[in-house]
Each structure stands twice: as structure tokens, then as C-alpha cells.
Amino acid sequence: MLSFEYHNPTRYVFGEGEHRNIGSLLRPLTDRVLLHYGGGSIKRSGLYDTIVKSLTAAGITFCELGGVKPNPSVSLVKEGIELCRNEGISFVLAVGGGSVIDSAKAIALGVPHSGDVWKLYTREESLSASPLPVACVLTLPAAGSENSPNTVLTHEESTRKLGYGHPALRPVLSVVDPTLFLTLPGNQMANGAADMLCHIFERYFSNTPDTELSDALCEATMRTIMQQAVLLKKEPDNVKAWGQLALSGTIAHNNLLGVGREQSWACHALEHELSAVYDVPHGAGLAVIVPAYLEAMMPHNPGIFMQWATNVMGVQHNRNTAEVIREGIRRLRAWYVSLGLPQTMQELGIPEDADFAGMARAACVLKGGIENPHLPGIHAVSPAECERIYRACAQA
Ligand code: NZQ
Ligand code: ZN
User: Fold this and answer.
1) DSSP characters for 274-339?
2) Neighbours of ion ligand 2 (CB under 5 A)
3) 97 lines ligand 1 (CB under 6 A)
4) Which of 70, 214, 268, 361 has the highest Cβ tally under 10 A?
């Protein structure tokens, strides 16, 4: 196990009906917020009215900015920054899924920053002042942004999708109420479960030795995500299952499972290129990328893949290692399919003549730099290998 420091200051409030208390939960922290939300689901469900009522009852005033799209854009973030500056707002409340929370974090970064917020993501600038605090009411368990220090943003003109991390971006308060997930369409549950699972893959498939505890925590969380997603596919109104899935999604990405381990983030780098260019949902893109990536990586550390196939995918240990691992990957594909997730580029709407070489190079430069472009992980993946992984997804 590697040395590490772990600091997680988010006040995490979980429970049925807890969203109604957002005003009183926020009141010790602020009396004025930017209320940030997405494309309309919170208005259709009545959540918007409940939040406004709760804020008003607690004496919290607000300005609002809706319209965050999945794969949130820099342009709306810049609008939010201007609004906060003009209105003297220094606290952002996100009500939504990962896209809304990430957009809120970007606004929180940009308000006190003296430069261009996008240049923080491109690493052309360094942050000039501490970000504003962010709180959230989660409406979609998936990205883990409710307890992560990260934000991911898309620059539409340059078709780039980049992440930025800062310890102060972990929300100061996250309200996770499983009753809010009952309005989600089935494909969002599946996308979310695929994303959560991949957050663990990026940490679990590692060459770091002596990680028995975090291996076991990862394995338990992976099994829970897979089981609860299957249950929710059959019973979308099962609030208890939503609760278990949501807690798993938070644990999957708050880095408790990644401490002391070398991490990869290769699948995310490959997927973010697809989202940036073709605007595909993040979880669906990962469902396509992951099996091909695992197949390419398994020869480089068969031990950890064998452990996963037996402990998570339930494969009997009664044949040769490669067969056990391949059976694990086959079962993973079957799980994706059972949730209605895509398994090919074609199903994602990505054409056969897509610029896979260009996307592979961009992903490798992002992770490894221009001098040594590669994706880190169990094995350092070159741009040519990345391209082969993309092409394997096109033919799956
Ligand atoms: O915009 P509205 O109308 O609210 O609709 C949303 C959106 O269309 C809808 N939705 C959300 N809650 C709902 C609901 N519909 C009905 N009922 C509800 N309760 O769901 C759609 C998708 O929402 P979105 O927020 O885009 O999904 P998700 O939570 O999967 O977030 C994806 C984004 O998170 C980033 C991804 O790259 C992607 O941009 N990620 C962020 C991470 C982080 N900050 O740590 C890590 C992740 O790996 C990921 O990269
Ligand atoms: Zn993700």
C-alpha cells in the first residue's frame, strides 16, 4: 500500500424525505445562494417548489440559473459566474445530477478566480483564490460528484471535455434522498450504475501490492452496485434499493476505495473523448469501453483480474486463468446488456469512420503529456493500443 492522506469534510445527509430540510441544513452556512439546476426535471417533479419553500422558510434568499445540460458546458458556467458576481453571491446550491453539481463547482471556481475558468481545466492557468462553497441535493446517483473533489466540463467549440480537481470542491453539504430517484428514466439508472462500477475499476485494477482491505471494500461495493441495479431494473420504485445504489455510488468515487493504490482512469480518459465529440451519456460510453479495455489489460496482471472474476463475478475457479477472466468479462457484458446498456460504438451512434486515432492520441496526451503520451494503469497504454481498444469496441 502507498502512503496517502485522506480528508473528506462533506456533511453527508442521507434519508427518505431529507430534501425537505435543505433550508434548515443550509442556514448555518449561508443566507443567500445561487440555485443551480438542469433542463427541467426538477420543475416537472415538483422538487423545485419544495426546495424554494424550504429555502424561504429558513430565510435563505436566492438567484437561480437553470439549463445545465448533460455534459455541462463552459458557456452556462460563465453566465453563472457573472450572475454571482453581479448579485454578490458566494455560495452555490446544486439541485441535480453530476452535470449540475459539476457546473456548480465550476461556477464556484470561477467567481473568485481572476482569469478564465476554462483555463483551469486546460492547465493554462492556476487558481488565484479559493473556490466558493458548494452544497447539493442529489437527484441522480451516478457520477459521485456529491462527495468528490472533481468537476468535469465540456468546451463545446473545441469539443474538449476536461476535469479539474481541488480539495475544496468536495461539497460542504450533500443531501442524498432516495425518494428523489423515483422519477428517473430506466436508462439513467443503468448509466449511473455503469459509471459507479467503472469508478471502482479505475482504482481496483492496480499493480499496487498489500491492499487486502481496499480490495475487499472495492469488491463488496462492486457486488452491491451490480445486485441493486438488477433489482431496480425489475423494481424501479424500490426506494430501499435506490438508497443502497446511491450510497454505493458515493463510496465508489469519494476515494475511500482508492487510498494507497495506484489508480488508472484510462477508461474515463477514453470515454471523455467520446462524450466530448459525440455527446454520448458518460455511463453508456463507459459500458462500451470497459470490456474492451479489460480484455486488453488482463495479460498484464492476471492475478488481480482472476481475483475480480472469482470474488465479484462469481466465476468458479476450476479452469485456466485466462478462461476464468474471460468468463468474468463475458458476465460483465451480460450485466450491461441486461440493463439495456450499449456494447458497441454503433449502438452509441458513433460511426465506423470516426477519428479513433485522433481521439486515442488526445486521451494519451491528456494523461501522459505531449512528450510521453500514454494512459496509466496496470500497463502504460500507447496511442496505438488505445486506437485498437476503440476499434475493438466498434467491432464488438
Ligand atoms: O437536466 P434535467 O432536466 O435535470 O435532467 C437530467 C439529465 O437529462 C436527468 N435527471 C437527473 N435527475 C433526474 C433526472 N430526470 C428525472 N428525474 C430525476 N430525479 O438525467 C439526465 C442526466 O443527468 P446528468 O447530471 O448529466 O447525469 P450524471 O449524474 O450521470 O452526470 C454525468 C456527468 O458527470 C461527469 C460526467 O462526465 C458527466 O459530464 N462526471 C463527473 C465526475 C465528478 N465530478 O467527480 C466523475 C464522473 O466520472 C463523471 O466524469
Ligand atoms: Zn465516471
Assistant:
1) HHHHH---HHHHHHHHHHHHHHHHGGG-HHHHHHHHHHTT---S-S-HHHHHHHHHHHHHHHHHHT
2) 195
3) yes
4) 268
